[in-house]
Amino acid sequence: MADSIHPSPFASRRSRVVAWLLSLLADEPRHSRTRSLVIVVGMVAVIGCVDYACGPHVSLELFYMVPITLSVAWLGWRIACAMAVVSILARVVGDLVIRPYQYPIAVTWNRLVDLGVYFVIVWVLHALISLHREMERRVEERTRALQESITTRQQLENELLEVGSRERNAIGRELHDDLCQHLVGTALAAKVLGEQLAIRDASAARGAQTIVKYLEESIAKTRGLARGLILGSIEPEELAKELGELAGKGTAGGVACRFSLEGNPVIPSAGAAAQLFRIAEEAMRNALRHAHPTEVNIILTGDDDTTFLTIEDNGTGLRAPETRGPGMGLQIMAHRAAYIGGTLSIVPAPGEGTRVICHLPRIAALVPVHA
Question: Does 204 fall in a domain?
Answer without folding.
Answer: yes
